[in-house]
Design a protein that fits this description.
Largest interface: A-B, 21 and 32 residues
Number of strands of chain A: 0
Shape of chain A: globular
Number of domains of chain A: 2
Number of strands of chain B: 12
CATH class of the largest domain in chain A: Mainly Alpha
Structural class of chain B: alpha/beta
Main location (chain A): membrane
Structural class of chain A: mainly alpha
Oligomer: heterodimer
Helix content of chain A: over 70%
CATH architecture of the largest domain in chain A: Orthogonal Bundle
Strand order of the largest sheet of chain B: 6-7-8-3-9-10-12-11
Strand content of chain B: 15-25%
InterPro entries (chain A): BPD_transp_1_N (IPR045621), MetI-like (IPR000515), MetI-like_sf (IPR035906)
Protein name (chain A): ABC transporter permease subunit
Largest sheet of chain A: none
Keywords (chain A): Cell membrane, Membrane, Transmembrane, Transmembrane helix, Transport
Family (chain A): Belongs to the binding-protein-dependent transport system permease family.
Shape of chain B: globular
């Protein structure tokens, strides 16, 4: 098992390198010159040369990449063009804020998705099943920024129950949650949770009803287990498939949502990315994308290892 | 309906005690919005401690469903009629909770395909331990000890190591042995075996079959075997019941039925099967296909395929009558009524 984990970990290295290459290339692929963004239009050629040397843009690309990679590995993601602060010091709080939001959204999305999916899987073909499927399809199809705006109109503007934007006391990094923080997070977390809830409900439903059709479930009943114990077996059989989907959703949520965070003015990675795009702040863009991609890779690694622990057959592949 | 009873003269001493399994006029219908099929129509038999009954028949003849009715292991669309009593307990009228206490302990079952019948994500040991603890409420270590004994009982080599193996890590034969160990884990008095050797290689088949027979004799379980394989039947059974379209059409001691079949279907079945000393002779298949259970006619279900059918065969379903001592057949040839003998063949009538 240790061997498997190690091997799986080694597989992630080329992926990580690929990710870093893409991030690095972003700067050079993006239309427009990063230098021109920070210099006045009428800058002299000499000044341009100076700035190029300062940022290392005068060296050949592979060398630039290695320099950049060296810096990244030692924790230096560069300096924001706009704020002149270290990219890392901008990204870390944003990642923290996104994590808080993602954790709440994951909690809601997974609980609702797994709950509804299981109910539907156990009652496949019934009205209940159709209702869950309808909910899931709606959840996946509704544009979530639109849903966010509707929720704001409903709960903040019309009813006045919940604040429309910001993090409230959560913004100061205050934990545990205060009532104020809770009030601020409800709407964005709910909005973010709708898509994963829908996707997970559908996959749980499909997996559970498929597992329940397998022969071994009959054996379980034949040996005298009650439905409660049979459920444990069904759950463990369904878990690997569902986990893979959940891992993807988790990674997606950790990445933050540009649209939802912008609608709710939530200062997370999505919000940061949005600002960086509009101001052409490439180092921030690069750094944020890199950090998020690493999250994605690590989450997938964790899911694979978990899957292997739950399903002994995975080892053989 | 005494002639419907299966019990022959072979086990004289057991005959005095009450039967362990008593099935009376069992019927099973599958009812849903778009269909209503009678799969089993009035099956009755008795089985005593230590007896082996073999249900023989083609696929779709209702043998599997008949057997599963003994532990009510049927989909929700199934509607059961008649009565099933095992060890004096009324199985069909039992609440679900009580049903789960007798499943696996009083009655247990071996399935056809051990690859899919065992849970792939739990070890063999876990699956046996779970069953033992569920019925006997003993500690985990006691249950594990029992699981080990069971694997040794079914002659799995290096049993201690196999206890922690997952089903996919075992060969087909070992898997089926593990399945048998699981079925025997709570000392059942009635063992149901649903084509337990069909999915195995021919060489493994006979090993598993011999093991099953040995265990059955050793533990004195009443056993019902479902198979379409006449060889299996003659290897393990005391009694045989041949099923066709959801009914018993011939019953009796295994030697009598296989050597001197009376019902034209059983006769055809024997002619279409390979057995000893037959080299050079041509096998005769039974013409036609089994009837569609959704649209059965009023007469004998086998009549459309029967070479000996005469006009009276199409008017009413014949009763199961004594065709020879201890042997019954559902054919009007053997009935008291003389209509069959009196009627001409179809060719003569036309």
């Amino acid at each position: 098992m240790l061997f498997y984990i190690l091997r799986r970990f080694l597989y992630t290295l080329p992926i990580a390198i690929g990710v870093s290459l893409v991030c690095f290339a972003l700067v050079h692929l993006a239309p427009g010159d990063p230098i021109s963004a920070i210099l006045p239009e009428n800058a002299s050629p000499q000044l341009i040369e100076e700035v190029k040397t300062a940022y290392g843009f005068d060296k050949p690309l592979p060398i630039q990449y290695l320099y950049w990679l060296g810096n990244v590995v030692s924790g230096d993601l560069g300096t924001s063009i706009m704020t002149r602060r270290a990219v890392l010091s901008e990204v870390i709080p944003a990642v923290g804020n996104t994590l808080i939001l993602a954790a709440c959204a994951v909690l809601i999305g997974f609980v609702v998705g797994i709950g509804l999916g299981t109910i539907a899987g156990y009652n496949s073909g019934s009205i209940l099943d159709k209702a869950v499927t309808a909910f899931a399809i709606t959840g996946v199809s509704v544009p979530h920024y639109w849903l966010g705006m509707v929720l704001i109109v409903l709960f903040s503007v019309n009813l006045g129950w919940l604040p429309a934007t910001g993090m409230g006391s959560l913004g100061s990094g205050e934990l545990p949650f205060t009532l104020d923080g809770l009030k601020h997070i409800i709407l964005p977390a709910m909005t973010l949770a709708v898509i994963p809830a829908g996707i997970i409900a559908r996959s749980v439903r499909a997996t559970v009803s498929e597992v329940r059709k397998q022969d071994f479930v009959q054996t379980l009943y034949a040996k005298g287990l009650t439905s409660r114990y049979v459920f444990v077996h069904v759950a463990k059989n369904a878990a690997p498939t569902v986990l893979a989907i959940m891992g993807l959703q988790l990674a997606q949520l950790l990445g933050g949502s540009i649209l939802v965070e912008t609608v709710f003015a939530w200062p997370g990675t999505g919000f940061l990315l949005n600002a960086a795009i509009f101001t052409r702040d490439l180092p921030i863009l690069q750094g944020t994308i890199l950090v998020l991609s690493i999250f994605f890779v690590v989450t997938n690694l964790a899911v694979d290892v978990l899957q292997m622990m739950l399903d002994p057959r995975v080892k053989r592949v | 309906m005494t002639n419907d009873q299966l019990h022959g003269a072979s086990s004289g001493d057991a005959a005095t005690s009450a039967p362990l399994v008593d099935v009376r006029d069992l019927s099973v219908r599958f009812v849903s919005r778009d269909m209503d099929v009678s799969v089993v129509n009035g099956v009755s038999f008795e089985l005593r401690e230590g007896e082996v009954l073999c249900l023989l028949g083609e696929s779709g003849s209702g043998k599997s469903v008949t057997m599963r009715s003994l532990m009510r292991l049927l989909p929700h669309t199934a509607q059961l009629g008649g009565s099933v009593s095992i060890g004096g307990l009324d199985i069909l009228g039992m609440p679900a909770r009580q049903l789960s206490t007798i499943r696996g302990s009083l009655v247990s079952m071996i399935f056809q395909e051990p690859m899919t019948a065992l849970d792939p994500v739990f070890t063999i040991g876990q699956q046996i331990v779970e069953t033992v603890r569920c019925h006997e409420g003993c500690s985990r270590s006691d249950a594990r000890r029992r699981a080990l004994e069971l694997l040794e009982l079914v002659q799995i080599p290096s049993a201690a190591r196999r206890l922690d193996a997952y089903p996919h890590e075992l060969s087909g034969g070992l898997r089926q042995r593990a399945m048998i160990a699981l079925a025997l884990s709570c000392r059942p008095r009635v063992l149901l075996a649903d084509e337990p050797t069909t999915a195995l290689d021919a060489t493994v088949q006979i090993q598993v079959l011999l093991l099953l027979r040995e265990l059955q004799r050793e533990l004195g379980m009443a056993t019902i075997f479902v198979t379409h394989d006449l060889g299996v039947a003659c290897e393990v059974a005391d009694h045989v019941a041949v099923m066709y379209a959801g009914r018993f059409i011939e019953t009796g001691a295994v030697g009598d039925v296989l050597n001197r079949p009376h019902h034209p279907y059983t006769v055809g079945l024997m002619r279409s099967t390979v057995h000893g000393g037959q080299r050079g002779t041509t096998l005769e298949p039974i013409p036609g296909a089994p009837p569609d259970l959704r649209s059965l006619s009023t007469g004998c279900a086998f009549a459309p395929r029967c070479g000996e059918a005469r006009p009276p065969c199409l008017t009413a379903m014949p009763e199961l009558v004594e065709a020879a001592p201890g042997q019954t057949a559902r054919c009007i040839k053997y009935g008291a009524a003389t209509t069959y003998a009196a009627a001409g063949t179809f060719q003569a009538a036309v």
